[in-house]
Amino acid sequence: MLVRMTGKPPSPVTPPDRFGAPTSPQTGGRSAPATPTEPPTPKGAGSEADPEESSPEGHVFRLIGEYLRPHRRPLVLTVVFQIVQTMATLYVPTLNADLINNGVAQGDTDYVLRHGGFMLAVTLVQITAAGLAVYFGAKAAMAVGRDLRADLFAQVQRFSAAEMDRFGAPSLITRTTNDVTQIVTMLVMALTMLLTAPIAAVGGLALALSLDVPMAGVLLAAMPVVAVVIYGIVRAMIPASRIMQRCIDGINQVMREHITGIRVIRAFVRDDHEQRRFSDANAELTDASLRVGRVQAFFGATAMVFGNITAIAIVWIGAGRIADGTLQIGDLIAFLTYAGQILGAVMMSMGVFMMLPRAKVAAGRIREVLDTEPGIANPAEPVTELVGLGELDVKGVTFRYAGAEEAVLRDVDLVARPGQTTAVIGSTGSGKTTLLHLIPRLFDVDAGAIRVDGVDLRDMDRALIARTIGLVPQRAYLFSGTVGSNLRYGDPDASDEDLWHALEVAQAADFVHAMADGLDTVIGQGGTTVSGGQRQRLAIARTLVARPKVYLFDDSFSALDTATDAALRAALATEIADAAQVIVAQRVSTIRDADRIVVLDAGRVVGTGTHEELLATNPVYHEIVTSQLTLQEAL
Ligand SMILES: Nc1ncnc2c1ncn2[C@@H]1O[C@H](COP(=O)(O)OP(=O)(O)OP(=O)(O)O)[C@@H](O)[C@H]1O
User: Residue 4: which residues within 8 A CB-CB, separation 6 or more?
Assistant: First the structure.
């Protein structure tokens, strides 16, 4: 039979995970209100709304149009070769009819050879044009994919911690990989079929009409019937694909949690529970896939039946007309070929429309990232150099996390002078880490200001902030690579001697020496191949290599034993004697010698002074100290 099932519906691929996190305020610059108002919902998104429902088709076409614009050349070539290929495809049945009528039927071998040669040449043109059309179409589509990924990556790099929190790392990864793939896949199909299909349908019909009007009527009658049936099936496919997409989301989530939390699962012997969760999600996906499969099977069978009914009608009418001498056998064969081409074209274009729901969701999610203005932008005329030694002044700072009801920090003051150590202590959840994250401008304050050498952070160039302030985070992160490449994150030009010196100060030289390849020892992603304490010390060394003016240690000594902690602080005291140090710690012994201790309680500063002053006057500090040391030890 002539009808080929080329309009195959898209195969299930991993869909994007869903974005349902609360939206955040776009606080940026000095104009940020003291009490943040409710954030505007980003375009194409909605914390409540289902992104699949809320992203119109326009998203896909606008996005594709925008990204195809720079690739006009391959696009134009695709169109040209598509037209050539389709014309040649339409021409071949006419030539074939001619060959049969005037060559085969007449027994004219010479005609068959001459005409056959020409037909072969047209087929060659058809094949070459088809190949080139696919090549340039894929080239344009891949270029769109590459540009989308590059723009998404660049945009995510501009994001502040607030936007990162809002989208979440897994979602940003899925958007950059899977969602882009959805767009590219649809684009490849669209470039290959959307143009060919209407030309083949209209051209085939025109040629059929020119051959025999009554028989072309069969095709004309069949086309709308097939289109209506396929439309109905596509309508059924859309909700089925949507359900399947949600099921794959579910399975992704279970899988992600399983991989991330494998140690906890093992520790609590929850393997069976996790296995059940996975089995449930898996069964749900299987059911949904079967539902989609049933719709596809029905689609295939129905299309085939209609195609064959059309072919039978053509043969039936054609046979009668051949018998009464009004139609030639070659024309009947040409008719059957046109019927196949026309119905195939209708089905192929339906295949593209079946991909639309998924591409639509993907485009909405991509647009959402691209349209999100980073809350923290570089100032228009940034300060690029500081003249002072690096005096940090936190003044009247209030901060609330996006979506949170209460401010985490209220009216916080803190001064860290060069050559001095300022410690921050407080119960867990009192806001210490948050305060430290505000200093390198990972978030912007809602009220108050943070200045270094009298310059507001919001007036400073981001590169200057990074050069001036060195944060050793609570959970040190190391990149996949070597010890050396991780340390050079602080300064790409640092020599091996510089690295070893930093390691000595950070009390890390001994264990790095003991590693098989020293500085060239490979570190697993996230630093999983070193211990927590080693990771902390490597992170400290990395910051030392950068030589900032202000050091922020966020509980960076917590994984060290007391002796190493003391040795490290002693080494730091001489190594970075001129720098300002802010140390957050839980252990009183770590901070008792600090020049100034700031006591935080529920986001407020409840005391500032030396260990002795606070012990004598501050009940919160007194309580923290006596919970760890005897009064004798404390004094
Ligand atoms: N990204 C975030 N989004 C929303 N709330 C947050 C976020 N990070 C922290 N919080 C909340 O802010 C409060 C202060 O957290 P923070 O980590 O600053 O406390 P901390 O004093 O450093 O605690 P710890 O000593 O346990 O590290 C906590 O109530 C916490 O739940």
Answer: 340, 344
